[in-house]
Amino acid sequence: MTEIGVCRWRIVSVMVVNCVLLASVCVSAENVTAVATGYYGGDDEAKTTAYYVKLVKSLFQTDGSGYQHVWPEMEFGWKIILGSFIGFCGAAFGSVGGVGGGGIFVPMLTLIIGFDAKSATAMSKCMIMGAAASTVYYNLKLRHPTLDMPIIDYDLALLIQPMLMLGISLGVAFNVIFADWMVTVLLIILFIGTSSKAFFRGVETWKKETIMKKEAAKRMESNDGAEVEYKVLPGGPSNGSTTKPERILKEEVSILENVCWKELGLLVFVWIAFLGLQIAKNYTSTCSTLYWVLNLSQIPISLGVSGYEAVCLYKGTRSISSMGDSASNLTIGQLVLYCSCGVLAGLVGGLLGLGGGFIMGPLFLELGVPPQVSSATATFAMTFSSSMSVVEYYLLKRFPVPYAVYFLIVATIAAFIGQHVVRKLIMILGRASLIIFILAFTIFVSAISLGGVGISDMIGKFERHEYMGFEDLCKYEV
């Protein structure tokens, strides 16, 4: 990633944090204005002091609760049919873009099926897990479009996935603590920003593909009509990678030959370690000393594995091959930023019930990773993170199992079909930028649907004067 790209991601992160804090103050101020005015008389200074005291108490109040889960009965009817259709489309588009489709699943589960927002978040993780697992199985045999390597970049996944898992654990806890309006504000800001970046990246890639297609047509004319092979663009502008056109690259190989087993073993180790900690945590009292020890134990595991990969990348003993020439000069600041984005992706994924690909997808494209590799690698990382979220939500009893199994099957089938169809389209049209536009479209639709639902719920709670503060994790009961 260029220095400009790094600065953009830092600016976006700071804006997200500032806007959430500002929104928190605004909503809490609205909730306590009447109380502060009615209970405190005297001069203006006393009223102002009382106002801010009530503001802080309202924002961090933990003895109230605005959450009660709503699980509709599973009955065959128009809701199941329509929900299945929307879920099918969301899984197909989401798996192709490498974003999971949670931004489409959550509104569907809330508005059509009838789940409450937080149960829908947990259910969407089940669907994301099914779609991701199906996509990974489809991609395990595929090779990089222009380089002699798997389409899944295992070194990039090893750098991001442990931090993604750490972020997921934080996000699941925040899903219990945060009020719905806070989630809505974060979602709208983040999704509009990432969808815009992905769209402009797609436009740039489309233009470069057009130039390459014209050059291929000119070479065909100069060769007296002889057919000239056109290769799909390896990545976005500034990729800088070069290929050897004289070498014929295989499109598919056996799974045993295509998997990097050492990297996969480290990723599975992180997953098993996190799973063991989550199961052990389920048998402790919430907020007890052992509970926090188990939670904090996730930090050295994530930092250890991602730190090992980052040190190897910095020293040059390993490289993110799919980035091309730019992979050889990664700085400490860039590596720290990428790991931070992994935590942020997991945090947002656990909090909103999304796959984390909404951040990883645009981030990988900014790194110069080809669209096919970006989608495959993001989905590969999401398989671990989404399955961990499902385990955590199951232990918290946040979703009904029959519904979860049904929609998981729907998403699994849809993702496999979506991958097959889009791959054929890319081969026919010669435009890998289709994946980027699908990514941007899915994120934008998710922003509109989730944002609209959130704003509508927020207005309803205002009108009904319902509790809109933080929940208490230590007092949470399913």
Distance between the termini: 44 Å
The percent range for helix content is over 70%
* Beta-strand content bin: under 5%
Number of helices: 16
Which regions contain 5 or more consecutive residues with pLDDT less than 50? 1-6, 14-42, 227-247
Order of helices and strands: HHHHHHHHHHHHHHHH
Shape: globular
| SSE-based structural type | mainly alpha
Main sheet, how many strands, which sense, barrel? none
Mean pLDDT: 74
Rounded radius of gyration (Å): 24 Å
Number of E-state strands: 0
Relevant terms:
72% helix, mainly alpha, 478 residues
Folded structure, characterized:
It is a single chain. Helix 3 packs across helix 15 (401-429), helix 5 (117-139) packs across helix 14 (371-395) and helix 12 runs antiparallel to helix 13. The chain contains 16 helices and no strands. The chain has helices spanning 3-39, 44-59, 78-97, 102-113, 117-139, 154-177, 180-222, 255-258, 261-282, 289-296, 298-315, 332-352, 357-366, 371-395, 401-429, 433-464. Helix content is 72%, strand content 0%. The two termini are 44 Å apart. The model is unreliable at 1-6, 14-42 and 227-247 (pLDDT under 50). By secondary structure, it is mainly α.
Describe the secondary structure blueprint for this structure.
Blueprint: H1 3-39, H2 44-59, H3 78-97, H4 102-113, H5 117-139, H6 154-177, H7 180-222, H8 255-258, H9 261-282, H10 289-296, H11 298-315, H12 332-352, H13 357-366, H14 371-395, H15 401-429, H16 433-464
Helix pairs in contact: 1-2, 1-7, 3-4, 3-5, 3-15, 3-16, 4-5, 4-16, 5-14, 5-15, 6-9, 6-11, 6-12, 6-14, 7-13, 7-16, 9-10, 9-11, 9-14, 12-13, 13-14
